[in-house]
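Holo prediction — adenosine-5'-diphosphate.
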Amino acid sequence: MSIPHISEDNFRALIAENFTPSDEIRTPERLFGRQKHLTAIDRALNSPGRQIFVYGDRGVGKSSLAITAAFIHTGSTSEPIYVPCGRLSGFSDVIQAVGNKTIDIVERFEKPATGRGLNLNVPAFGGFGVTAGTPGSSAIPAPTTIDEALDVIRYVAAKRQGRLVVVIDEMERIEKVEERDKFAEFIKNIPTLGNEVRFIFCGIASDVNELLNAHPSAGRILETIQLERLRHDAL
Ligand SMILES: Nc1ncnc2c1ncn2[C@@H]1O[C@H](COP(=O)(O)OP(=O)(O)O)[C@@H](O)[C@H]1O
Ligand SMILES: [Mg+2]
């Protein structure tokens, strides 16, 4: 490839510096042309009870926008939680994965020198705690109801300082309608978790209703952001 005034090496360096193929962007400095959306997310996350749903085509930059926004809005001492949905995962697996992210962090920072099991039971949560065991075997149980799912998130929030931001990505991979309905039901209840817990959902769709099956109250809670492909001049 030849571009006037730029050597091939310089061109390569420029590309390497500004693009991270298959690597989502995490910081606003590198996220081009998305200020309008970051502002919309900012406004929504400063309104009580509002959550975010980013949708659009494959590769338009949904994950990058979501992760960047999550880093901006998370509490200063903790990273946001990122969970991609899998083809075989259902609602319960995804919430369990969110919970297990906390175990990883706890183990990283609080691993007891004795090597004994972590005490992760939080009595305030009605005994729906964590199975204590040897380090590495502690796990959040898969929630069987929406209420238990909310408890998992409360547990995660209690383990964090400041605001908890959870990114649930690749929602289009959840194929079963009943699993999508559980998400819609869950979303309806997120505001009961308080203002220090916020969710950013992402998925490939041309309309959010494709992913949530037209759940009206979920729509009231969600700030939906349709992402278009970046224009060349933004890059
Ligand atoms: N705003 C942006 N500015 C520059 N590059 C971007 C931007 N958004 C995404 N990219 C790049 O485009 C590619 C696809 O982005 P990604 O966030 O993974 O898209 P999606 O989640 O919609 O599939 C990634 O390599 C990412 O680094
Ligand atoms: Mg993505």
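READOUT: The first strand starts at residue 51 and ends at 56.
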